[in-house]
Structures are given as C-alpha cells and as structure tokens.
Please model this.
Amino acid sequence: MSGPADTHIALPQSTKGFVWLNGFLLGRFWNKGPQATLYAPAPLLKAGLNSIRVLELEKAGNVVELREKPDLGPAEEGPIAAAELG
Model:
C-alpha cells in the first residue's frame, strides 16, 4: 500500500482543546476521556509534511503521537447491555 493511511492522533501530555489536521478540524480532546485519540482519515493526510495545529485551553504538552489503533477508553457495558432483555 502506498500513500497515507488512516491514523489516530493522541496528545498524552495535554489537557483539553481542539486539533486541526491540514486545516480540517478533527475535533476536541479532553484528558478526562474516555476517548484518548482522534481519528485522522487517510484522505486528510498528504504524502510528506502535514500540519497539525493544537489549541490547548489549559495545560499544553509537547508530545503529539500518531497511533495505528484507536484508544477509545475502557470497555464498559452501557445501559442496554446491562439491562435484562426478555
């Protein structure tokens, strides 16, 4: 496979804010979770250099990680899974 692939962006030292990838708003993050990564689809990525802009609203970190798999937080049963159906 050639060219950019889907990736997931993590900001493990940051607190809360927003992330842009090549001018496109990926979303907001907050270290309280549960989600710890933002999905970055391949069509937003360019071969070569890409621009990641972070607007940190509280405490800025100095690490941006690109991960192959998402970190969506701990697996928990939701109210439907926990309810008795029958």
Notes: Helices lie at 79-82. The longest helix spans residues 79-82. Strands lie at 7-10, 16-21, 24-30, 38-40, 52-56, 65-67.
